[in-house]
Amino acid sequence: MAKVELIGVKRHFEGVKAVDGIDLQIADGEFLALLGPSGSGKTTLMRLVAGLEPLTKGTIVIDGRSVNDLPPRERGIAMVFQSYALYPHKTVFGNISFPLFVEGMPREDIRKKVEWAAGLLGIGHLLDRMPSQCSGGERQRVAIARALVRRPKVLLMDEPLSNLDAKVRHTAREELKLFQREINVTTIYVTHDQAEALGLGDRIAVMHEGHIRQIGAPDDIYHEPANTFVAGFVGIPPMNFLERDDALLGFRPETFLPSELVPGRDPMKFRFQIERVENLGSYRLVYGTIGSEKVIANLTLHHPIQEGRAYDFSVPLRDVKYFDKKTGERIKR
Amino acid sequence: MSGRRLLEQEKYLAPALLVPVVAYVVLLVGFPFVMAFVYSVSNVTVGNPDFKLVGMRNFVEVVQDRTFQISLMNTCIFTFVSIVLVLILSNFLADLLMRDFKGKWLVRFLIMLPWTAPIALGAIGFLWFLDSVFSPLDWLLRSWGLLGKPDALFGPASNLYWLGRPGLAMASVIVVHVWRLLPLGTMIRIAGMNAIPREIIEAAQIDGAGYFRRLFHILLPLLLPVMSVTVLFSTLFTFTDMTVVWVLTKGGPPPHSTQVLASLAFLKGIQSGDLAQASAIALFFFPVLAGVAAIVLRFAKKAVVT
Q: Least CA distance to B303: which residue of chain A?
C-alpha cells in the first residue's frame, strides 16, 4: 500500500500530446477510476505509472520515492491487462507463481502464496488447468491473482471487465469492489465505462485529450459536473443543454419531468414537444424538442405520455446547472 | 457458350487455374523424382546406352564407400552447426530489428542483403574474401599483429589459408551458409514475435522478469512453433544445398574435407557420369528429409498454444 503522486506528467510522441500535464494525488488504499473516451490518454497515463512508457516530462512518486528512472519491476506495482495477458503455455499455477518464481522465492513459500491468492479469488480448483481451458471470468481472476500474489504497493487495472459478457461483468464488478476493500490496495482503474467508474471508484478522474477535466467523488462528477465535457460524457443519456442568452443551461434527463410531478415552489418550466417514446422496461426515454433544441427526458413513473403531443415539463431549480458558452466551464449561480 | 462464360463457372475455372501448378509439379518435380528412382536401381551412366536393373546394388556400394560416409558426416555437421548458429543469431538480430534506432533501415537492408543477392554471387564474393593470398581478413590480422609474426596468435605463416585447411574450410563454409540463411531465420523470428501479444511481454516485465527470464520462460516457449519452421526450412536448405560448398571449396581441401551429399552426388553424376550412383546418393536425402519434416510439423502442431 502506498500513496501515488503525479507531478506535471507529460507524454508526447510523434506530435501527439497523449498525456499533457497531469497533477494527481492518490491516497493510500484509494480506488481511483480513470474515466474517459478512447484516445483520452487514460491508458497512456496508467502505462506511465507502470513504467511501460517513457515520461516526456514530470515526476511520478510511489510511496514517497520518485520512480522515474526505475524499470517496471522495481516500482512495486502490479497490473491487470485488458486482455489479461496470461502466459498461454503455463498452467494457472504457473501463471500466478511466475512473479514469485522470478524473485527466487523458495518453492514452499511460493505454493503457500499462490494458494492464498487463488483462495482469495475462488480459483483454487483451477490451478492445474491451462488458461485456454478457463472461461473469461476465470481468466480475469487468474490475472488478478497473479497481480496480487506479490502484494504490490499499487494495483493497476486496464479495463479488466471489458472482455467479459454483460452478465458476468455485473457480478465481477461487485466482487472487485468487495475484494479491493478487503485487501485495501491503492488501485488505479482505467475504464471507458461510466457505470464501472461510478460504481467502483472512491474518486473518478475524467480525462479528455490528455487532461483531467474533473476529479472527484462519483456523486460530484454526476451531479456537479465541472464543465460541459464531463456533463455530456457522464450519464446515459447525457445531460440536456439549452442555449439561454449568455449561458448554456444544463439538466439531467431524470430531473426533467411533467410539471405536475415536480415538487418545490418555482421550478423552471418548459413546453416539451414529444417526438418519440422509447420504452426500456424500468424506464422510458422521451425524445422531443423545446423550441428548436433537442431534449431527452427519462421517466421512471407510469405517467401518461403520447408521441406527437406537447406537455408542460419542469426542472427543479437546484437541478439546473449553468455553463460558460465559450469555455464550457461551469458557472455558479 | 463463349470462353468467357465458361470461365465464370467454378467447375471450369478451378481446373484452368490449377493447370500451371500441376504441370509444374509433374514435369519439373515429379518426373525427375521418378527418373531418380529408376536410375538408382539401374546401371545407367552418361554415354552408355546399356540399361539394366541392378536392384539395391548401387545403394549397398554407396553406403560402403568411405567418401560417402565422410560426406554424410560432413553434411550432418554442416547442417547441425548452421541451424544452431542461425537460431541463436536470428534471435538477437530479430531483437535488434524490433527496436527503434537511428539508421535502422540501413541495418535492415544489410541483414536482408544476403537473401536478395544471388547465392552464387555472394559465395564468389566470399571466395575472394577468403582467398589464400589476398584475403582482406588475413591482411587485417597481419596489420593487428595477430598473424605472420613468430609469436603471433594465429601462427607465423603470412596467410591463414581459410579454404585450404580442413577445419577452417568447414568453418568458412558454415559461416557463409549461415550468412545466407540468417535473413530467413530473422524474418521468421520477427513474424513470430509480432504474433505474440505485446501485453504478454509487458506482463512479464511487470512481473519482474529480466531479459533472459523473459526470453527463456515466456518468449521461446511461445516461439517454438515458429522456430520449428525455421529448423525445418534451414534443414531442407542446408541438407540439399551445394552452392556454397561448390563455389568455395568444391568439396576440398582433399580428400573430402567439406564434401557434402549434394556436392558428392553432383560430382559422381554430372562430373563422373555415374548417374546410377548419384541417384542413389541423392535419394538418400529423401527418407531423412521426409522424416525431419514429419517430426518438425508434428512438433509445431503440438506446440501451438492459445
A: A89
